[in-house]
From TrEMBL:
SUPFAM superfamilies: 2Fe-2S ferredoxin-like, CO dehydrogenase ISP C-domain like. One of its GO terms (molecular function) is oxidoreductase activity. This is Carbon-monoxide dehydrogenase small subunit. Transmembrane segments: none annotated. Residues 2-78 form the 2Fe-2S ferredoxin-type domain. The lineage of its organism: Bacteria, Pseudomonadati, Pseudomonadota, Alphaproteobacteria, Rhodobacterales. Gene3D superfamilies: 3.10.20.30, [2Fe-2S]-binding domain. Keywords: 2Fe-2S, Iron, Iron-sulfur, Metal-binding, Oxidoreductase. InterPro entries: 2Fe-2S-bd (IPR002888), 2Fe-2S-bd_dom_sf (IPR036884), 2Fe-2S_ferredoxin-like_sf (IPR036010), 2Fe-2S_ferredoxin-type (IPR001041), Beta-grasp_dom_sf (IPR012675), Diverse_Oxidoreductases (IPR051452).
Length: 163
């Protein structure tokens, strides 16, 4: 079995993994980072989304061995060390962008990546970006509102007030 070395949420990790081990399995089962969810096992729902070297990746379709040397950020790694929510998480809370919460980690990671590449997305751009993330509870309205509010906050503008 190959050994891999990677950085997960700022900490160096060395693990021996079977060649067929998925990144999501390594994160959840070996490292105990259960915020990354498995929703479909087919790369459809986005609940398993993490950042690999700063890019969004559905961890249910990436082999752990392919992450050799990579820097991985999971939902557990986006808040401050003291537990303070990041801008996107706080916007989700403020704008009620979650109900059951199952899709929320993937949504937060996806929106964080969107705001990295587009600091001022339109509502249409947010909706298009989230096409790879499925939420069965919210209807996306408040998720989109949270994304737009987070974008405004990061640009230094006054965030959208919750209705």
């Amino acid at each position: 079995m190959p050994g891999i070395k990677l950085t997960v949420n700022g900490k160096t990790v060395e693990k021996t993994v079977e060649g067929r081990t998925l990144l999501v399995q390594l994160l959840r089962e070996e490292l105990g980072l259960t915020g990354t969810h498995v929703g479909c096992d087919t790369s459809q729902c986005g609940a398993c989304l993490v950042h690999v070297n700063g890019e969004s990746v559905k961890s249910c379709t990436m082999l752990a061995a392919a992450a050799e040397g990579a820097e991985i950020t999971t939902i557990e790694g986006v808040s401050s060390r003291d537990g303070t929510l990041n801008v996107v998480q706080a916007a989700f809370q403020e704008h009620h962008g979650l109900q059951c919460g199952f899709c929320t980690p993937g949504m937060v990671m996806s929106i964080t990546d969107l705001l990295r590449v587009n600091a001022s997305p339109s509502e249409t751009e947010v909706r298009e970006w989230l096409e790879g993330n499925i939420c069965r509870c919210t209807g996306y309205h408040n998720i989109v509102k949270a994304a737009l509010s987070a974008a405004e906050t990061l640009r230094g503008a006054q965030p959208v007030a919750a209705e």
